[in-house]
Amino acid sequence: MVNNQSEQLDAVFHALADPTRRAMVARLAQAPCGISELAAPFDMTLAAVSKHIKVLEGAGLVIRNVQGRNHTCQLDTRPMHGGIEWLRHYEQFWNQQLDALTAALIADDQTQNTTE
């Protein structure tokens, strides 16, 4: 059974719930980049971007490397695996529900065809 109460899982879903942070994750999936480069597409201050990055770091999705005044962010997808497993559990549930619905509809069609 999947443990959906995990703090890590909560942090990952919270981090990915925001469209700005999802866009940052998408950008970092291409290659590591600096804070300014990561902030460029967004109409917000560097302080606001930094807050988003801290949420991503808190979820373990971003690793920040600091060399002097240069901060480079790199994506770490490992924490997403817990979310994938959690979703996969419910995917199986919905597949079973849809299979049951399909079977019921087929049975209903067959019943209607034999009475006509």
Distance linking N and C termini: 47 Å
How many strand segments?
Answer: 3
CATH class: Mainly Alpha
Structurally, how many domains make up the residues? 1
CATH fold assignment: Arc Repressor Mutant, subunit A
Mean pLDDT: 90
What does this 3D model show about the protein?
A three-stranded antiparallel beta sheet has the order 1-3-2. It starts with 6 loop residues before the first helix and ends with a helix. Helix 1 runs antiparallel to helix 4. The mean pLDDT is 90. The chain has helices spanning 7-16, 19-30, 35-39, 46-58, 80-115, and strands at 33-34, 62-67, 70-75. It has a single domain (7-115), classed as Arc Repressor Mutant, subunit A, CATH 1.10.10. The protein is an alpha+beta fold and 116 residues long.
Which characteristics define this entry?
single chain, 116 residues, Arc Repressor Mutant, subunit A, 3-stranded antiparallel beta sheet, 5 helices, 66% helix
In short:
This protein is an alpha+beta fold and 116 residues long. It is 66% helix and 12% strand.
Blueprint of the fold:
Elements: H1 7-16, H2 19-30, E1 33-34, H3 35-39, H4 46-58, E2 62-67, E3 70-75, H5 80-115
Antiparallel strand pairs: 1-3, 2-3
